[in-house]
Write a structure and sequence with these properties.
Blueprint: H1 3-10, H2 25-37, H3 46-53, H4 68-74
């Protein structure tokens, strides 16, 4: 997410997706500093640059899946017709398909999806 999204999310922890996620002010400030420093508009990797180039400066996505480059490509995996492994209930479980997600590695060559019919998705994206 871009820094502006993290700032907005961390500024409204009392209502964080229906939960109260408030923390001590010092902890919140430390977390926010980390998130802003690692945000998509601060990252040097190509995927973050691509994400930011396709995101309007007026957009402040509150979830990574609100970003078309992410949600649009991945939305098909929640389709009931998807019969592959892993069977997903939420796009929040990145590590189910991206074994290196915990290392921050989401490259299209580093995934495990078994349903070949879902390799080519609408919008011209090919998962290879």
């Amino acid at each position: 997410l871009p820094a502006r999204s993290w700032q907005k999310l961390m500024g409204s922890l009392k209502e964080h997706f229906g939960e109260n996620a408030e923390v001590k002010l010092a902890d919140r400030d430390n977390m926010l500093a980390y998130l802003v420093g690692a945000s998509a508009d601060s990252a040097a990797n190509g995927r973050s640059r691509t994400l930011m180039s396709r995101l309007s400066t007026m957009d402040t996505p509150m979830r990574v899946t609100d970003i078309l480059l992410v949600g649009g490509i991945h939305g098909g995996f929640l389709d009931p017709k998807f019969k592959g492994i892993p069977a997903l209930k939420s796009l929040a479980d990145c590590a189910a398909c991206h074994p290196r997600a915990l290392d921050g590695r989401f490259g299209p060559r580093n995934y495990t999806v078994t349903d070949e019919s879902f390799r080519v998705l609408k919008g011209g994206y090919e998962l290879r």
